Amino acid sequence: MFAVLLISFLAVVQSGRDVPCATDGSEAAIEWSELICEHCKCNNIRGRRDGYEVTSRQVCEDNAIAAGQDYYNYMVDGPTVKICAYSDSTVAAAESKSSEESCEASGVGAGSRVFVGGVPGTDQAADKAAGITKSDWKIYKVRYECRPDTCASPVSSILHEQSKCTGLSHIQFRQNIVYKDTFELCGEAAHAEGFGYFSYRLDKKYCYYGEHHSSPYKCEDDKIVTTGSDQWGIYTVDCA
Hints:
The structure is a single chain. The chain is of the alpha+beta class. The chain has two domains: 7-145; 151-239, 3-Layer(bba) Sandwich (Hepatocyte Growth Factor). Helices cover 14% and strands 30% of the residues. Strand 9 (197-201) and strand 10 (206-208) form a beta hairpin. The chain is globular and about 50 Å long.
């Protein structure tokens, strides 16, 4: 699935499955998961038994979409166990594990709230009141958008110097490091895959983008990682 693109890069931005993309082949429909909060879960989920094991978050996303859901819950429990939780479309919104009412909306129905999540503390009552879970539950919302299908001359621009998107620690120890000779080539590759952000290190030529490394949640403002090397940078890429 493609990550979120910059607003200027999108012809249409809408929530919902029926996004009206251009019919002349100039646009393509994409879907991606926005992380709503961490250490939180939708209403009506008591624990991991309300979900099932999956091999990855991507599988959880695919299955939730197939079930007609725009929200889902995901938890990594230890080194190997991954739990996915959502309801199907036959469950009433107030009783669902994956409706807007149970996962995000405030004041829509009994028990609804805005989930902020956070780091669990020592005050269990305060954590419960704030919707903070001890387990590493996360709530995701599926977004649907249109993007230009082609771009003759994508342009890459530095967004944050001496920084990289969250989740890119210790690149030098990875087995399959991705390289591009210039940040412009890295931007072209990211753009071709439908992404609006990428991280690049000038001296090592590390090039990283993708579903887990190219969203605003990972690459903008307080979500970024400050690096020891001034060769790292977070870039945006868009059609000129």
